[in-house]
């Protein structure tokens, strides 16, 4: 009996040691992955495809605009190309032009007409170099040219009494804009994260629920900042290693400075972040403009079709 108890004890110890070893291996593997995702810079090849479906035969004078943010201190974009296919055939628009919109490179295709049930494939390819970016705040010039980012816009309800009251309460006692930014960032970063599948992001939606996804949290922070007369705008992009869309915030403190209340980065942007566009509230990287006499709600449908990232080298 004693012998069996002893053998059972030895077996228990072996199981315990083995479990501890497996746990330590799991922790080491997790740490290795985290370290791997925090390299100081990346060289990436990116390919993004959008599918645009035309569901209305009455669409007139359609045009497509596709935007990609230009290079800055955090990233440098090279070899930028758009390809356009319609119904699986190469297609030349009646007019192609490029211009800048919200500091983004914008390609525009104008068409005389599009057939009903046209399927348009917009294929974006580019190479990009990114690096860890630490930013210093500068005195905020109240005479800056960014009044656009001080007023309410789609999803950023900075003029709502609840937003104004909350912003005032959070920043009470703080004098400098930097301290106000830190206080508002802290408040939003502590809000619970939940996936939101009900339409676009909204500051009020996030405030009412007391939780939100990256869109909602970014929009709420923008609204609270604008209520303090501090320019702020949402940023749309992705995080390398996660390969999903992500939204964060740029606040103007003498220069556009990055803040991510979801992943808790203040005045810092990891190299894994790639900015595709910034805007003023609701914003689409691909937009279709057209004229129609119809009231159909599903005249144009835009879907993210493919998202591919290849890492060339990094340090």
UniProtKB/TrEMBL annotation:
Membrane-spanning residues: none
Coiled-coil regions, chain positions: none
Pfam families documented for this protein: Transglut_core (PF01841)
Boundaries of every Transglutaminase-like domain copy: 206-263
InterPro entries reported for this sequence: Papain-like_cys_pep_sf, Transglutaminase-like
Listed PANTHER family: BLR5614 PROTEIN-RELATED, SLL1049 PROTEIN
Protein's name in the database: Transglutaminase-like superfamily protein
């Amino acid at each position: 009996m004693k012998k069996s108890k002893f053998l059972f004890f030895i077996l228990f110890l072996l199981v315990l040691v083995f479990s501890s070893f497996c746990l330590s291996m799991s922790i080491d593997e997790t740490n290795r992955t985290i370290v791997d995702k925090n390299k100081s810079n990346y060289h990436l090849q990116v390919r993004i495809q959008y599918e645009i479906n035309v569901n209305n035969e009455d669409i007139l004078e359609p045009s497509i605009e596709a935007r990609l943010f230009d290079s800055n201190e955090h990233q440098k974009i090279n070899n930028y190309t758009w390809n356009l296919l319609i119904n699986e055939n190469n297609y030349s628009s009646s007019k192609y032009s490029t211009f800048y919109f919200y500091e983004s490179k914008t390609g525009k295709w104008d068409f005389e007409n599009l057939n009903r049930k046209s399927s348009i494939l917009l294929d974006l390819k580019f190479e990009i170099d990114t690096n860890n970016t630490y930013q210093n705040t500068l005195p905020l010039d109240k005479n800056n040219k960014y009044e656009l980012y001080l007023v309410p816009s789609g999803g950023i309800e900075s003029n709502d009494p609840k937003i104004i009251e909350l912003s005032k309460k959070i920043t009470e006692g703080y004098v400098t804009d930097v301290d106000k930014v830190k206080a508002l960032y802290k408040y939003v970063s502590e809000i619970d994260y939940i996936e939101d599948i009900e339409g676009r992001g909204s500051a009020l939606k996030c405030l009412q629920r007391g939780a939100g996804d990256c869109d909602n949290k970014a929009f709420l922070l923008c609204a609270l900042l604008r209520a303090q007369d501090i320019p702020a705008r949402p940023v749309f992009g992705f995080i390398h290693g996660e390969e999903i869309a992500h939204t964060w915030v740029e606040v103007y403190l003498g220069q556009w400075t990055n803040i991510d209340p979801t992943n808790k980065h203040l005045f810092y942007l990891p190299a894994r972040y790639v900015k595709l566009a910034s805007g003023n509230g609701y914003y689409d990287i691909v937009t279709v403009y057209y004229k129609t006499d119809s009231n159909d709600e599903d005249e144009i449908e835009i879907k993210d079709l493919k998202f591919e990232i290849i890492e060339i080298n990094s340090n």
